[in-house]
Amino acid sequence: MTTGLYAYALSRGLTDADVSGQPGIGGAPLRLVQLEGLVAVVSEVDLEEFGEEGLRRNLEDLRWLESVAIAHDDVARHAAGRAPTAPLRLATVFLGEESLAAQLAEWHDSAERALDRIEGRSEWSVKAYADPAVRAEPEAQQPPAEGVGAGRAYLLQRRAATQRRAASAQEDADLAQELHEVLADHATLSRRLAPQDRQLTGHTGEMILNGTYLLDDTQVDDFRQLVAELDGRHGHVRVELGGPWPPYSFSSLDAP
Amino acid sequence: MTEQPRSVARMQGPYDRTPERHQPADLADILERVLDKGIVIAGDIKVNLLDIELLTIKIRLLVASVDKAKEMGIDWWENDPMLSSRSKDRELESENQQLRERLKELEQGS
């Protein structure tokens, strides 16, 4: 079997003792590769599975993707709980030590900047869901005006209903933006992600906000309170907090 | 791949989750973050990474040595958003193309 190196995360000050006992993908032991103060967390993977062809095939397989994504996240989470950690994307695979070392050298400065940015901070997710049953109650039907035929009355009603729906969708969009701005004011950095598909998450209602926020450890308590307060503020919208996450959304290596 | 055995005696870290983790919604959050790109669900829970071609070749997979990559015609160091700012246009361009192709497929009823 030809093996490659799967890189999970870049870290600072992580030690072998920190990662012993945490398995990587397929239960493989984790290894740390050091370069001038930068630590890459890696494990060996089979290139049949993680090479170009294998990945192309496997990434189409939700079960495979799920187990690898969870293993990846477990390692990122484990490292982030013990040292400043910038998780890498899924399936960052190297064919050997040399190419990994070359890439680490290239990443070094931007990785240092990313680690500076996230040290002492964690990522939190806030989602807002609108309950469509609660909003846009159809108004009582008006009796058709004098001289308006039944067909035309029906069409007028349909048009009015469509306009109401559009208006309430716009209201939700405005509300989501407003929520995000308030949350962002209480965070160090923030990003809006695309609303998630209900088929994957099984959530009820309509996700109008999928925001993610980088919080300093000192901001977490206030932020929690803020989310609870926002949750109670609008009858038809519930607001939920999730986290902490390793700082996935704020540790990309190209940010200024 | 099988579920990882969990060491019972492991020290708890602040990020360690409770055993009831990995609910479907949780998985969506993980995928969203580890892939750093939107996920499109088509029909019965098939994850359709808009850019599977790019995903494996150009954007996310950092295969090995630059020499080897050049041989294979991969220029990920120019395409990877982590490494270059020019990539954004490329991403949009390729995403557009993917979507156009997908639309054509749908129109042809395949």
Automatic annotation (TrEMBL), chain A:
GO terms for cellular component: gas vesicle. GO terms for biological process: gas vesicle organization. InterPro entries: GvpL/GvpF. It comes from the Bacteria. Keywords: Gas vesicle. PANTHER family: PROTEIN GVPL 2 (PTHR36852). This is Non-ribosomal peptide synthetase component F. Belongs to the gas vesicle GvpF/GvpL family. It is found in: Gas vesicle. Its main location: other.
TrEMBL record, chain B:
Residues 1-23, 80-110 are annotated as: Disordered. InterPro entries: Gas-vesicle_GvpA-like, GvpA, GvpA-like_CS. It is found in: Gas vesicle. This is Gas vesicle structural protein. One of its GO terms (cellular component) is vesicle membrane. The keyword DNA damage does not apply. Coiled coil: none annotated. It comes from Nocardioides ginsengisegetis. Keywords: Gas vesicle. PANTHER family: GAS VESICLE PROTEIN A1, GAS VESICLE STRUCTURAL PROTEIN 2-RELATED. Residues 86-110 have a biased composition (Basic and acidic residues). Belongs to the gas vesicle GvpA family. The keyword Plastid does not apply. One of its GO terms (molecular function) is structural molecule activity.
